[in-house]
Structures are given as C-alpha cells and as structure tokens.
Amino acid sequence: MKHASVAVDGIVVGQIAQGLLILLGVQEGDNAEDLQWLASKISKMRIFSDAQCKMNLAIQEVQGRVLVVSQFTLLASTKNGNRPSYINSAKPEIAEQMYLDFCRAMEELLGSAVERGVFAADMQVELLNDGPVTIVMDSKNRE
C-alpha cells in the first residue's frame, strides 16, 4: 500500500506512508493465541516488492508502517436475506480489548509504533492500494 489514513469527524487520527492498512475484525471466540498468530504472520509476510519487482520483502525490510482499523463489518453474514448480520462479531467490550492487544503485539514484533483508528467511531478510511494487493487472513483457518 502506498499510503493510508483514517479520520474521525474530519480530523485525521492515524496515517502512514508505505506499509500495511490492517482492517481487523474480532470474531466471537477469538483469543490471545489468535491475535499472536495473526500479528506474527503479518509481521513476517513477504508481500513487498524487491528490486526485481517480486513480492519478497517483509514490512520491516521496506521500513513500512502499520495502520490498524477495527472493522466488525468484515464478519458480516449474508447467508439469509439482504441485510447483513453481525452476530458473529465479538461483543464491543471484548473486541476493543482484543483490538488494543493486537496493536500492542504488532508494536512489539515490529519495534515501532502502530497508527490506529478510533474503536467504534464513525471513521473515514482512505488508502492507495499498490498492485493492488489485498490479503484476507482468518486465525481460525490458518492457511
């Protein structure tokens, strides 16, 4: 990703240049092990281009930054009807703590601060996706 930002009420609360915009959905039943696995996997993923334009470099190798935005809508179930159900999302008080724990885990693994959105706020997220490269990861389906 070339750059990303998140704003609340027109005020930018988090922004990065090259790096990763992580949209984090916390599902009912997610736990600390899931967060650690996800943070570890993301911090090591070789998804940035090397000199030969091959996806071969991890975020630290390109001095990339991370912006994490909580997004419960990723867990939408569209199985029945036309209105998505969010019943699989973790309760807000649980999801918020797990969001904060995930951000701290990423900071520890990367050795640098992680930019953040504002949990449960109406946020405007902007990004310039490079490639584009978008990867979906599920800690319960560790492919």
Could you characterize the architecture of this molecule?
This protein is an alpha/beta fold and about 140 residues long. It has a single domain (about 5-130), classed as D-tyrosyl-trna(Tyr) Deacylase, Chain: A (3-Layer(bba) Sandwich). Helix content is about 20%, strand content about 25%. The chain has two helices and eight strands. The strands form three sheets. The protein has a three-stranded antiparallel sheet, with no helix packed on it. Helix 1 (about 30-45) runs parallel beside helix 2. The longest helix has 19 residues, at about 90-110. It is globular, with a radius of gyration of 15 Å. The model has no long low-confidence stretch (mean pLDDT about 95).
Spatial order of strands in the largest sheet = 2-1-8
Q: How would you spell out the order of helices and strands?
A: EEEHEEEHEE
Task: Give unreliable regions as ranges.
Answer: none
Helix and strand content put the structural class at alpha/beta
CATH homologous superfamily? D-tyrosyl-tRNA(Tyr) deacylase
Counted up, domains total 1
